[in-house]
Specification:
It contains 14 helices and 3 strands. With about 450 residues, the chain is an all-alpha fold. A 3-stranded antiparallel sheet has the order 1-2-3, with no helix packed on it. About 45% of the residues are buried.
Length: about 450
Amino acid sequence: MASPTDEKMSISKQAIEPIADESGSSIKEGVLMDHHSDDGEVFKSSAGGVDFRTVTWQRLIIILLKVQIATGVLSIPSALGSLGAVPDTACLLIDFRNRHPHCHTIVDMCGVMWGKIGQELVGFMFLVAFILCCGSGLLGTSIAFNALSDHGACSVWFSFVAAILIIMYSSIRTFDKMTWPMTAAFICVMGGILAVVIGVTLVDRPAAAPTEGDFELGFYVVGHPTFAAGVTAAATIFISSAAGPVYLPIIAEMKNPKDYKKAVFPVGIIVGSVYLSLSMVVYYYCGQWIATPSLGSAGPLVKKVAYGIALPSLIVSAGIFNHAAAKYAFVRLFRNSSHFQANTWQHWTSWIGLNITFGFLAFITASAIPVFNYILALAGAVCFAPMSLMFPALMWMYDIGPKYRSAGFKGYAMWALHIAILAVGAFMVVGGIYGTAESIKQTYDSSQSASFSCADNSNTVT
């Protein structure tokens, strides 16, 4: 029998111990603490060094908004100029990752399906995708420097400065620590876009239109582009919403990866609303005379204002992609090493070195393809069409599809849906590569854009 003293001690002990709820959370010192499992996860919260898994679902909303509303939104109005005004794979990817928590990126997920060879091939595609996206952000940053300085220096030098700034930001080790700069960057890009949206409604004619005489606006509800122009525009729009592969390394750094839907669904609604409303306004007032990127559509003064406001966002956007490429390579190199989550000199020199390496490759890419839309379209066709359409459909067939083989009509319908997604992805790959390559060739061959030089970089943006 317990004595009164023992009972009092038991009550006192219960009073000071954390109270756990059914979800595994506990209240300690007035703070709700999430006890997330390390089972199978890439990053271990109990590693004793760097804790990568610090992203809450609230911060995930901020991160995903900045990932989605990045440089791609600046190219959508001009894509509408080709296509006209009317033209849940992310959840599939994340659910697959959560069923296989050792997967850090889509590369590991493809390795589950296809083994080592498939993993290496997709790994190469993953790096190319993020280098191209970082290159587009780097190019956008150099365009901003040109606009603000009235082409005060060689574009190559501006690109070099942009690369340094991007590498400095991308070298932050965890997505959690990158959140506050992302918040400021999101506000900046929205401010820059709103400046243009308001500006195009106040000018007599778009900045790229003829300065004198009548001109055709060229606003079409349904456009009639050539195949090359149409598929390039479609690839440009597609990449602006195909961020599922970018989500995965961020989800791997969540405290509780199963909370991702609390962020993904509101982000989808917000991004869709922003893309549709703001892009349509710019296209309605500018028609075919849309600058690329679109921040230059309302004249020189508004262009400077818009780029001045949006400049931090351009740097941060490119930094996110450079960070993702470096983080993938870092995990592949050090995952089973004692330096993986330890503050050792090997850890730091490798991490900084990878960021510099991929930043330099993005700089080379931006110099080789100095047309903003074409970099995005090429990344969309070559990399993001497979990773955001084809691979999720194949993952469903691999992981869930067998359960639907005996599900009657519902099973046939689900299989038909994912086969259709696979076919659309294949078309985007083949057609997008051809269309973008043809568009790049035409740009280089045209008399207006025959050369890309330091002396005249106006061919980079109109």
